[in-house]
């Protein structure tokens, strides 16, 4: 209640007078305490269909721990949403180097377009994807071995069933499975021996003559190509050219060799054609007005995803989703709140501009504004601090004293340039100041070392104050993040074409502090 927390600040001076109550109030208004989030387990259960068990591949084979955690959790959810909506195309906005995109494509056989504004990121994504495809078969084989091992362990805990019963269950399961992906998993794990593709045929087909097999192969080339594609799953980086000798000297080949060479040719064609089912990194700057069909020529019914979309990009992702009928679902995890544009921050009259905050009509009517300092605070990680990963107090102190110097010595109060990660490259405070002034394009020759150290000595006794102040900002961070996330959720709730929308905590906040996803599904057309 507002009354309960009214004594946190002094009524006259508006200064903080009750730290304990301040912390309680911040916790009270945090997202985890408000009860507005939908548990991830509930979402996955609601989306669950007849999806089959994956091959057990883990992304930590080729990503760091944080990225592996994010990709593993989010890719499972995205695949479930895509299956529920009946789409195979995914558009990854702000895809960066393609960690999520490539995994969605290779692990879940989704057709993914990754769009990023940075050419260097797109180039890195191409190169990373090329290398990853070369090793993917090894990852798949290892994953299948792990999965079979897990199944064996589970089977050992249950009574042994007869081979006939197991075979009946397996055949019944295969006959009732409709998707190519499910067929592929059953075939690869249980039914296909090493001798070749023709073992997929039924007992009736096995009695056919070799000549019949040749005729059947020739007449159903496209069908075989699709079936082979389902088995191949993921391709190596460089597809082999079509084996041209399969068309030569047919009269001199026995029928079995003809069939085998035809199959070899079709496999190679399937490899080439299925390149279109992999991951496509693209470079484009996305705004709320972006026409995806101008970027993606074969745009079809799809879903949009974004893993840590920066600043306004998260808001624009939701706007594009609501505006385009072909986009059936969205799953967006935002970040970099400090880069959001705010409609009411500077009270500028700019009716045509699309702002990152606020999005919902309720906050627009209130003229709500956070301000840059509050948005910067929203980026802090309370959960990490709580487990001992303290704030970088010294670097923050360096940055604070630097700001005093450039204001008092150079008269600069605002700059479009950034200091960046200068602290980690600096050997001392003097070195830090000089490196920073060069980045800001300010003349450091007018500033002797002694003057720099005078500023350091003047303020160093206040370092504890700075640390305490930043700890209060960390405590308040979840409350500001709540405001931004609920604004996005309310925007979706205001749209008439949305069947369901919610906030879902996807990640461990210690591993990945920006852990909440905004998810929405469109109403199905009648």
Automatic annotation (TrEMBL):
Pfam families: Methyltransf_32. Residues 66-343 form the Methyltransferase domain. This is MET25 protein. It comes from Furnarius figulus. The lineage of its organism: Eukaryota, Metazoa, Chordata, Craniata, Vertebrata.
